[in-house]
Every structure is written in C-alpha cells, then in structure tokens.
UniProtKB/TrEMBL annotation:
This is Mycothione reductase. Residues 367-478 form the Pyridine nucleotide-disulphide oxidoreductase dimerisation domain. Keywords: Disulfide bond, FAD, Flavoprotein, NAD, Oxidoreductase, Redox-active center. Gene3D superfamilies: 3.30.390.30, FAD/NAD(P)-binding domain. The keyword Lipid biosynthesis does not apply. Belongs to the class-I pyridine nucleotide-disulfide oxidoreductase family. It holds the Pfam family Pyr_redox_dim. Residues 13-345 form the FAD/NAD(P)-binding domain. It comes from the Bacteria. Its cofactor is FAD.
Length: 490
C-alpha cells in the first residue's frame, strides 16, 4: 500500500485480521483502495492462509484418503478380493500433501504481499487499541474505516506436566511428523481425535484413544454416536473415563536421547495407568483467538467461551449495540467451528462491507457437519432428542435406513452404514438428518438441500428421480420411510 510518513498510522478503507476466510474479503470492490491484511501465521511454519488450508480441513482430508485406501482391505475381504496392505509410506504421503498445500499458501501470500499494490500484508500478531484500530508487535498502528475480525481459533492444551514436550502434538504439528508413529495416544473424543484415530489406524499405527466420558462424538444424535463408538472400538483401542495426568519423556536406550513418551492417565475411580507411546496427540477443543486480539479490553462483548458476540448481520456488539464498521466471522465468533460456515459468513460480510445500507444476515438454518473418520459421519439439523423436545414426541417421525438394505449396500456387503432422517409427521417438515458410513457426507446433501429450500419430506423423496442402483438410494429410502402426509405440491 502506498505512502504514509514513517511511523504514521496506516489508515486503510478496510482492514482484516486473519487470512483464513478473511482473505476472501478483498474483492475487486476494493481495487485501488487501501486495504490492510494482518496475519500472524498458523502451524509450525507460520503459514499464510489460515487453519483450513494449512493445518485443518484440507491436509487432514488428504491424509484421510490414503488411510481409507489402506482400510479398504477389510471391504475387499468381504467381497472375495484378496487385497494385502504392504504398508503406507508416510514421508511420501506427507510430502505429496504439503507440496500442494504449501505451494497454495505461498502463492496466496505472494499475491497479497507482492502483486496487489493497494494491499499491505502485515505478518504480525496484532492487538486492538479501539473499535477499528489495532497495533502490531512491530509498532505499526492501523486505523481503519471498516475492520473485520477473522482471527479464528487455536487448540486448547490441558494444564498437565509434560504437555510442552516435543512428543506431544496438536493438529497444528502432527501432520508434519518425520515418520509414521508406531503407537499414538490420542486425547479427546470429538472431531479431531476421531479423524486422526481413523488416519493413524488406517496407515498402520497402533492407536489408543482416551476420552473423559463414555462414548465418542457424544454431541451427535445418540443412535449415531453409539453406532460410531462401537465401530471405533473395533478398529482401535478406546479407553473411556480417563484423563491425561502427565506426559513423561522416555529414554528406552538409556543414552540420554529421549524417544517416545509415557502417558500417565487418571481413571475416574482414582487409579493411574501408564502407556508407552511414540507421540501423544491432544484434541480437546479449540478456543477462539479473542484473547490474542485483546477483544475484552477493547470493550467488545464476549460469550462465556470467548467467542466475540455478533448480530444476525455479523456486526460486532459492544455493550449490546453494534459497533459501526466492525464485523466478525468464522471460528472467532461462530458456535460452529466449520470452514463452510466461515466461508458463508465471509460472503455475507463481504456484501455488508460493500453495501452498508443493504445488510444481509447469515444463514443459521440447516448447518451441516461431517467427521471424516473411519467410518465417516455427517449430520444436519436436530438430533432426535432435540426434535422431541422441540415439537413433542407424538409429532416426531424417524426412519433409520441401513445401507445393507439397498442394492448398492448389497454390492458393498455393508452391515454398518445408516442414514437416519427426522421429520414433523404433521406436515413433513424435515428436522434433521444423520449418516454414518461410506460417503456419509455426500449422502446427506439431498436432506440439507431439502431443509435449506423448505422442501417437505414427501416432495424430497417422490418429487425427483433417484439414480438406480446408486448408493444415494439409502437416502431416498430413508425419506420414503418417514410417516408424513402426501405433499400438496406433487
Ligand atoms: C485439524 C482440523 C480439521 C478440520 N477439518 C474441517 C473439515 O473437514 N471441515 C470443516 O468444515 N472444518 C474443519 N475444520 C475447522 C476449520 O478449519 C475452521 O472452522 C476454519 O478454518 C476457520 O476459519 P477462520 O477464517 O475463522 O479462521 P482461521 O483460518 O484459523 O484464520 C484465522 C487467522 O487469524 C490469525 N490470527 C489469529 N489471531 C491473530 C492476531 N491477534 N493477529 C494477527 N493474526 C491473527 C491466525 O494466525 C490465522 O491465520 C478443521 C479444523 C482443524 C483444526
Ligand atoms: N470434519 C470437520 O468438520 C472438522 C474436523 C476437525 C475439527 N473440526 C472443528 O474443530 C473443532 C475442534 O475440534 P476438537 O476435536 O478439538 O473439539 P471437539 O469439541 O469436537 O471435541 C473435544 C473433545 O475433547 C473432550 N475434552 C474437552 N476438554 C477435555 C479435557 N480437559 N480433558 C479431556 N478431554 C476433554 C471433549 O469431551 C470432546 O470429546 C470441532 O468442534 C469442529 O468444529 C471440524
């Protein structure tokens, strides 16, 4: 960005803190107008472009795919194909993934830093000094006409001895390991823990997953959570009602060269257990980076979990009132820490920045999520207990369709996959969808679409062709199985 006196504050028309979904706010609308993008970088390489690209969705799913291939010997065996896994080449898998990811990150950084004259990239941690002003660690001061807070979240670490040892990882570092660990202890029972348990077990590591309570993915619909937990327990070791007490470096050769670690677990009945492993992966949640921004000190409203409070138009609130020209999006402010949510909110904020007298609200309905574990999980809308609570048990209709009862399920000889749909039996309004199994995230998309466009269950099931005998017939049959009235639209 051009010309201000040395030491003078930068005074852009737009400033953005966070280069994840925040990066997409620099639309052609801002061409020729000064913009500042501040980002401190993520992961062990301080990469540009935020969590999803560098240490989140994209590299994890690029590991999920080879792990799924490695797991496919199980299915092959059921189908009479004698497939043997000779091993997974971790360095090759890792390098293929990060060659692509790092190149995209570098290109994105270069474009912002070098190719756009009107954009100043501030590769610094910054802290708010007022509602639309902030200070970087190197003393650069920014006073913006409009400011967007898109500073994301970071992994939570437990306060236990040894958590800072090099053998202890979070999702920020674990994907760049030198070699495939033989034995991994994973702490947590949510998204990240379950995805990495699937990855490491698929690629050949011995996995021990440790969870505080009984059952994994406990926020899901109970039928899905229990079915998933049963599958996970078959594929790797799952220990319940235990927490991490400490991690101690191990020196098995006695040469003063620690290799691996001993994880000390505390059981609910007060016992201590020890597990010798190569690495410990901590995945017990992510906290919004509002503290790094100094949001509270700047007078912004915060939820109890540290998220910045925004209104329906993504405007940041202070004292319950929207602050003019100040927006937030993504993990920093959203209850759902999901990339498609951050991206949607970025599109809403981009519009609102450009059209301050014609504000758009972000969509809160039918927000889906998927967990790319082994097996895959997906959900949208209400769980069955939530539906019962909301409209009363007498009005709720539910259908669980097994993959194994459809033609493609026979082809797969599948005995575990399910799609569950929930509707209001009075008018066929779809309330929720839940899936577990091969391609679960794709199988749920027709339910997400119907819910998003207000299509009732009867119309969604009968108002279109479903390709025979595609796996999607599982979803068709789930919808057909709901006890709902015929649609007036057909
Ligand atoms: C392992 C993993 C797997 C995931 N998989 C999926 C998935 O499959 N699907 C899905 O939908 N979601 C997934 N997510 C969640 C998804 O990655 C996040 O919801 C999304 O990336 C959030 O985007 P954001 O723009 O809000 O924040 P980020 O992308 O985190 O961007 C925030 C940026 O702000 C910077 N920053 C923070 N504080 C400051 C400061 N004070 N000064 C300057 N810069 C600062 C950070 O360095 C960062 O670059 C996954 C997350 C993880 C960790
Ligand atoms: N596929 C996806 O969309 C995807 C993948 C990965 C991450 N994410 C996002 O990232 C977020 C963070 O993922 P996550 O797995 O870290 O969090 P999570 O909220 O999904 O799960 C956290 C787990 O840690 C446990 N836990 C919390 N505190 C603990 C403690 N002190 N000791 C032991 N266990 C504790 C919880 O009981 C829970 O099982 C997710 O909520 C999700 O929104 C999404």
């Amino acid at each position: 960005m051009t010309d201000s006196a040395p030491g003078a504050p930068l005074t852009p028309d737009l400033a953005i803190i966070g280069s994840g979904s925040g990066n997409s706010l620099i639309t052609p609308h801002w061409d020729g107008r000064p913009v500042v993008l501040a980002d401190r970088g993520v992961g062990s390489t301080d990469a540009f472009g935020g969590t999803c690209l560098n240490v989140g969705c994209i590299p994890t799913k690029m590991f999920v795919r080879p792990a799924a291939l490695a797991h496919s010997t199980e299915e092959a065996g059921r189908l009479g194909v004698d497939l043997h896994l000779r091993g997974a080449d971790w360095p090759q898998i890792r390098d293929r993934i990060f060659a692509r990811v790092d190149a995209i990150s570098r290109a994105g950084r270069h474009y912002r830093a070098e190719e756009l004259d009107h954009v100043t990239l501030l590769e610094q941690q910054v802290r708010l000094t007022g509602p639309r002003s902030f200070l970087a660690e190197d003393g650069t001061e920014v006073r913006a006409e409009q400011l967007v807070l898109a500073a994301g979240s970071r992994p939570v670490l437990p306060e236990v001895p040894g958590v800072d040892l090099p053998q202890v990882h979070t999702s920020d570092s674990v994907m760049r390991l030198e070699s495939l660990p033989s034995r991994v202890l994973i702490v947590g029972g949510g998204y990240i823990a379950c995805e990495f348990a699937g990855i490491f077990s698929g690629l050949g590591s011995e996995v021990i997953q440790v969870n505080r309570s009984v059952g994994l993915m406990s926020a899901l619909d109970p039928d899905l959570a229990s079915a998933y937990s049963a599958e996970a327990e078959k594929s790797w070791t799952v220990l319940y009602e235990r927490t991490l007490g400490a991690v101690v470096a191990r020196d098995p050769e006695g040469r003063g060269e620690p290799a691996g670690a001993t994880a000390q677990l505390l059981t609910v009945d007060g016992r201590q257990e020890e597990y010798d492993v190569d690495i410990v992966l901590i995945a017990i949640g992510r906290r919004p980076n509002s503290d790094l921004l100094g949001a509270e000190e700047a007078g912004l409203d915060l939820h109890d979990d540290g998220r910045i409070v925004v209104d329906a138009w993504q405007r940041v609130l202070a004292g319950g009132e929207p602050v003019e020209g100040l927006y937030a999006l993504g993990d920093l402010s959203s209850a759902a820490q999901l990339k498609h949510v951050a991206n949607h909110e970025a599109r809403v904020v981009a519009h609102n920045l450009e059209n301050p007298h014609d504000l758009r609200a972000s969509r809160q309905h039918a927000v889906p999520a998927a967990v790319f574990s082994h097996p895959e999980l997906a959900e949208v809308g209400l769980t069955e207990p939530q539906a019962v609570e909301q409209i009363g048990a007498e009005h709720v209709t539910v259908k669980i369709q097994h993959y194994g009862d459809t033609a493609y399920g026979w082809a797969m000889e599948d005995s575990t996959g399910i799609v569950k749909v929930i509707a209001d039996r009075r008018d066929g309004t779809l309330l929720g969808g839940h899936a577990m199994g091969y391609q679960a995230s794709n199988l749920l998309q027709p339910v997400i679409q119907a819910m998003s466009f207000g299509q009732d269950a009867h119309s969604a099931a009968r108002g279109q062709y479903w390709i025979h005998p595609a796996l999607m017939e599982v979803t068709e049959n789930a919808l057909l199985g709901l006890d709902v009235p015929p649609s007036r639209h057909l």
